[in-house]
């Protein structure tokens, strides 16, 4: 139990720090906060989902909760996307990266349509898709390094 809490705590702390590394965009909550969640999802999809959920909460918090209660829905979506990514990564890395990028960059933004409008959602998709891809790519590359040099042992899912 304490090992689980430690995994989630360490990666969530990293997510908090990276939530301050923003991508330039019309909305201030696009950041590197999901990278630790995606990385941990490769190791354990549930832990990664929890980290991605908390990472989104941190980014929305330090960006002023622009989307109000919709951030809870977005955070739940981040949990689901990280979980799906972690499960898919073991089977096909490329499909996992593409699927998670599409879910995060092109599907999830429609949650905030009542605030941004459809035009606003489509306007944020390019930078959000790029940011999603960068977060997921960095997570995948770090995992390759971790696995190659046996920095941490892969946990059973």
What does this structure look like?
There is one protein chain. The chain is mainly α and 157 residues long. It has one domain (2-148): Arp2/3 complex 21 kDa subunit ARPC3. 73% of the residues lie in helices and 0% in strands. It is built from six helices and no strands. It has helices spanning 2-18, 35-43, 45-62, 70-89, 93-107, 113-148. Helix 1 (2-18) packs antiparallel against helix 2 (35-43), helix 1 packs parallel to helix 3 (45-62) and helix 2 packs antiparallel against helix 3. The longest helix is centred in the C-terminal third of the chain and has 36 residues, at 113-148. It is globular. The model has no long low-confidence stretch (mean pLDDT 91).
Q: What do the pLDDT scores average to?
A: 91
Main sheet record: none
Count of strand segments = 0
CATH level 1 class label: Mainly Alpha
Low-confidence regions? none
Question: Key terms for this structure?
Answer:
single chain, 0% strand, 157 residues, Arp2/3 complex 21 kDa subunit ARPC3, transmembrane helix, 73% helix, Alpha-ribazole transporter, mainly alpha
Task: Record the SSE blueprint.
Blueprint: H1 2-18, H2 35-43, H3 45-62, H4 70-89, H5 93-107, H6 113-148
Helix pairs in contact: 1-2, 1-3, 2-3, 2-4, 2-6, 3-4, 4-5, 5-6
């Amino acid at each position: 139990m304490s090992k689980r809490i430690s995994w989630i705590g360490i990666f969530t702390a990293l997510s908090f720090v990276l939530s301050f590394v923003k991508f330039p965009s019309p909305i201030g909550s696009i950041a590197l906060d999901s990278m630790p969640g995606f990385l941990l999802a490769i190791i354990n999809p549930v832990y990664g989902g929890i980290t991605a959920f908390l990472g989104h909460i941190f980014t929305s918090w330090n960006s002023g909760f622009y989307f109000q209660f919709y951030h809870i829905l977005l955070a739940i979506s981040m949990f689901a996307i990280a979980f799906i990514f972690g499960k898919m990564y073991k089977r096909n890395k490329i499909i996992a990266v593409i699927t998670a990028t599409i879910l995060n960059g092109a599907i999830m933004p429609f949650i905030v349509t009542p605030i941004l409008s459809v035009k606003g959602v489509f306007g944020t998709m390019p930078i959000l898709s790029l940011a999603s891809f960068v977060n997921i790519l960095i997570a995948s590359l770090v995992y390759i390094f971790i696995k190659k040099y046996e920095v941490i042992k892969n946990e059973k899912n």
